[in-house]
Amino acid sequence: MEMKKLLKDSKKVATQYTTWVTFVGLLLLLSILTNGQALRWGSIRNLLIAESVRSFAALGVGMIIITKGIDLSIGYVVCLTASVAASFAQNPDYSSAVYAGQSFPLIIPIVAAVAAGGLFGLFNGYLIAYGKLPPFIATLGSMSIAKGLQLIYTKAAVVGSLNQNFKNISQGSVGPVPNLIIYVAIAAFIVWILLKHTRQGTHFYAIGGNAQAARVSGINVERDLMMVYFYAGLLYGTAGTLLASRLGLANSLTANGMELDAIAAVTVGGVSQNGGVGKVSGMMVGVFTMGLINYGMSFLGVDSYYQQLVKGFIIIIAVYFDMKKYARRA
Amino acid sequence: MKKTVAILLVLALVCTGLFAQGGKEATDDTVKIGALIRNLNEQFVKDYADNLRKLAEENGVELNLQDAQGDVARQLDQLNTLITQGYKYFVIIPQDTSVTEQMAQQIQAVGGGAAFSNIQPSVDALKVGKDFYLASSPELVAGQYQAQIVDDYFTQYPEKAPGKVLNILYLQGQLGHPAQISREAGFIDTLESLGYTVNFVAKDTADWTPDKAQEKMDTWLAAHRGKFNLVVAQNDGMALGAVESLITNGLVDNDPSDGTILSFPVLGIDATADALNSMDQDKLYATVLQDSVGQSSTAFELAYAMATKGTAQGVTAWGIEPAKEVISEAPANDPAVISQCYLVPFKPITKENYKDLM
């Protein structure tokens, strides 16, 4: 009897906290496979740094998916904003600089990149909220526009030789804690406040759950939808800035494919593709779960070709269980 | 809520257990070398990696080879991973010149060293420490060899370039890539010094890839048919894309007496197996050998010397001695780091010698 109850209870916990259970399971698995080697502080620190920029993308697209939207433009928007940031942070004596011979105050690259991200967000949001385009198509279009703009702006060249002050934004640290990890914590906190403790946040869930009902209950669905893409755009702009700063360059390959990583991460983190469901904690655990998979395979020396395969299967399995969970409820 | 707390506790417990356990280090004395490779989807890079694996096996070295899949961020993460795993000596094909200094600093911080191939490290990267090396081929030379092959061809068939005017369709690698810049400079300078008028009918990037090159060529052939007499690509992949395009567009004279059945000679760089096959079928006219075996062997021997002797300063690697005189191309243009530069020669590959490589 006791046993039965325990089993039932643990089953309940497992379904309720699939995300956490997966994460802990993977941690355990990796520690066994590497005799604990993979999970020293140095390694955890690497993992956190590696996933930091993706966290911003995940927080953005996580909010969007809560409203039952999707964003395919992430990778190229981050690529564009990284290039914009980098172009204003090049050493003035670098002959192939976008603005050769000029140096800008540190605030310029940051503002320019975040603004570029925000503009793209507004553009996406307007098309989806007021233009009534399906999010998939609208962001597919803006993905290509972002890529085109990036190539035109940089003339397809590498934007390199960035000044040290700009690089310190991402490469610096406060004591033993890398700056990047602090930025992620701040961003996650802000998004958590927004989703959990503001009226607009509850609107996002309402719209994702049932847009029609939300409208009837007096929510300005169009405005809120536009804003969610705008907020995401600001996060992508920040991601671009931090990425350029971390790498010390930006080129047309920067952040390519980040949309898939981010969407996969939040899905693994329990943000439902059906809309209306998802938590910031889940998004972050999702990001670090995917990171752990990448990191673990890299640590164990798994061939890069197989890494792609494993990642693909994990995404499919996560969505499959997600669909099943909510199909039952409906 | 209770359950969340419980789960967090379990998590914390698991983590502390793991951290505590992590203190133990493997203490065997196998030589460990890390390899950070920018993209295994490229033929040259794959050949380079295959040779590294072979050398590691022959020498009983534990080689951990990581593929960055074209992503700078991933390459930096992989470096971090290998450093925490205790790797100190590296063979690196960097994703981009701009990150080499940062990589060198991280390796220097753990008292290690690295040999860079294929994508040139910056002068500053080599200045980070004495045990950072260039084991690569100066890209200028590849362009110069292409120019010489062009000169040989038109000296033999002067009627194909009246007035020594070259009207060229030119396919570039990724813009801003050091190889793209230097190969082009070497090519143009040499031809001009040989008395040619160099006229680019069309010039654009195809990002090193055959499919993009073929698309570009298809468009150019529609626009510039009859206005050019030479096709040059900055690597073999793109050259083969161009060859396909010429064939599908019917620009074939089926006369192999000049070395190619195409109406115009097409040149590449790298001497990949595919390129040699194409030369064997009288399609591709010529290429330049970027020696994947030479570069990887040199880099491997440098890393091996560091791992076994603590330093590789002044050693002869794969029969190559450190350079003594500066050349015009970075990083071997700086006298302060010239003794850290191992220049692996390029080699022009034409009808006369291509069979040696097959």
Describe the structure.
Chain A: Pfam families: BPD_transp_2. The complex is a heterodimer of chains A (330) and B (358). By secondary structure, chain A is an all-alpha fold. Chain A is globular and about 75 Å long. Chain A has a domain of 202 residues. In chain A, 73% of the residues lie in helices and 1% in strands. Chain B has 2 domains: 160 residues, Rossmann fold (3-Layer(aba) Sandwich); 150 residues, 3-Layer(aba) Sandwich (Rossmann fold), CATH 3.40.50.2300. Chain B has 11 helices and 12 strands. Chain B has a 6-stranded parallel sheet, sandwiched between helices. In chain B, strand 1, helix 2 and strand 2 form a beta-alpha-beta unit. The longest helix of chain B has 21 residues. Classes of the chains: A mainly alpha (330), B alpha/beta (358). Chains A and B meet through helix 2, helix 3, helix 11 and helix 13 of A and helix 1, strand 2 and helix 3 of B.
Structure, briefly:
Chain A is built from 14 helices and two strands. With about 325 residues, chain A is mainly alpha-helical.
How are the SSEs ordered, and which strands pair?
The complex is a heterodimer of chains A (330) and B (358).
Chain A: H1 2-16, H2 18-33, H3 41-66, H4 74-87, H5 107-129, H6 135-154, H7 164-171, E1 173-174, E2 177-178, H8 179-197, H9 199-209, H10 211-216, H11 221-247, H12 258-268, H13 280-299, H14 304-329
Antiparallel strand pairs in A: 1-2
Chain B: H1 2-22, E1 32-37, H2 43-58, E2 62-67, H3 72-84, E3 89-92, H4 100-109, E4 113-116, H5 123-127, E5 132-136, H6 139-156, E6 165-172, H7 178-193, E7 197-205, H8 210-224, E8 230-233, H9 236-248, E9 266-267, H10 273-280, E10 287-289, H11 292-309, E11 341-343, E12 347-349
Parallel strand pairs in B: 1-2, 1-3, 3-4, 4-5, 5-11, 6-7, 6-8, 8-9
Antiparallel strand pairs in B: 10-12
Helix pairs in contact in B: 2-11, 6-7, 8-9
